[in-house]
C-alpha cells in the first residue's frame, strides 16, 4: 500500500496554511486538522529509529507507562474565567481542562467507555492497543511556583502586546508560541485559542517529534516547525474536553487525542493520499479520511481500495487518526502504539518528559533547618536508607512520592528522634521520586532516582 506522495511537494506548499486543500483528502466541511501531512524523507529517519528501537527491545514486549506533564496555555482577551458565551468563551474553565485530561488518559490507556460498545467494529477490536501513555496536570511553573490551577497558564493577549484574537497558524508559530512556551523538555505545551483568518475552521494542529538520526537529528518537516520553542499542540477553544465550550460533533475531547497522536509521531490513517501509507501495517488502507460518523452502531464504511482493504470491515473510522466525529472514535492500534513508544524512548524533548517532576509539588515544599535528613544511595537500585536526626523526640512520617504526587511508600515513627531507616523500593517503577519527612517541626524533601 505504498504510494508516492503525488500532490505538490510540502516545501512548495509553504507554511501550514494551504495543506487542507490537498486534493486527495476529502475534507469534512471544516478543517479537522492542520498538522503536517505524510513526509517520506522524515519517515525514512523515523523508520531507522523504529528499527533500532525494536532491535534494542530484542523481542521483549515494551511495557512502559510514560507520564507526560501537560500545561494548557489558555489565551483570552481579558474576559472572566469560564465565561461561556459566543463573545467571551475563550477563557475556558479548569473543569473543562480537567475533562480533557480525563479523555486523554482514557484514550491513550484504552479505558475509554465507547471502546467496548458497538462503536468499535468487531473486526478491529483485537488490533486496538493500550498505548501506555499517562497525562498529568503540571502543578509547578518553570520558576518553581505552585500553580493556582494545576495544568493551566492563563494569558491575557493584550498584556502580552499580541494582536487581538483570533489567530492564524502563521501568527501562532511566529509570535504566540515563542512568547509563551514553557520548557518543552519538562512540559507538553498545549495552546487553547481561537483560529481565524486563513485558518478559520481549523480544530487543531501539532508539531511532530524530532527524530534522532546520526549526528543530524531530523527536525520535523522542512518549513513546518521543529524548534524547541514551537513544540506542542494547538486547539481551538471550541474543541477542548467534554464540557463548557466543547461543541458538537467535536465535543468529546478527541481533537486533543488526534493532535497528540501526531505529536507522538502518528500520521493520518489514510497516509494523506488515496489508499496511501500511514506506516502502520494494522490500519487498513482507505481511500479518504472519514467525515461524520458512518454509523453509531458499528457499521462499515467502504474502504475504496479494492482487494487491498476488503469491505467489510472497510475503513477503520474508529481510529483517532481519522477525521470522524468524536463519538465515532475509539482506538489506536498496536502498530500506532509501537511508533508512540519508540518516540517516547528516543526522541528529543520526549524522553526528558518522562523524568519531569512538574506534576508534583513535593519538591517545592519548605525545607526547615531543624530536621536533618540524608538519603542514600542516590541513585538507588531499590534499597534506600534514610538517616534522620531530630532535635527532640517526636512522631514523624517518611513518605516516598512519585512524580504524579502519589505516595508509594510510607514509614511512620512514634516518639523517636530519628536514626537509620531502610526503605525497599525494588518493586517500584524506575524513575524520579521525592522522599519527604514530616513532623511537628516541619518538613524536608529530597529528590532521588530509582534505576
Ligand atoms: Zn491530523
Description:
It is a single chain. Helix 2 (40-57) crosses helix 7 (334-346). The chain starts with 9 loop residues before the first helix and ends with a strand. Strands 1, 2, 3, 4, 5 and 6 form a six-stranded mixed beta sheet that branches. Strands 7, 8, 9, 10 and 11 form a five-stranded antiparallel beta sheet that branches. It is globular, with a radius of gyration of 24 Å. Mean pLDDT is 85; it is low at 1-29. The chain has two domains: 10-355, 3-Layer(aba) Sandwich (Collagenase (Catalytic Domain)); 366-450, Immunoglobulin-like. 16% of the residues lie in helices and 21% in strands. The protein has 451 residues and is of the alpha/beta class. The protein is built from seven helices and eleven strands. The chain binds zinc ion. Zinc ion binds at residues 33, 35, 258, 262, 268. The site of zinc ion has 5 residues, from helix 6.
In brief, what are we looking at here?
The protein has helices at residues 10-13, 40-57, 94-108, 122-125, 169-176, 254-263, 334-346, and strands at residues 66-76, 133-137, 152-156, 188-193, 204-206, 233-236, 371-376, 383-402, 407-424, 431-439, 442-450.
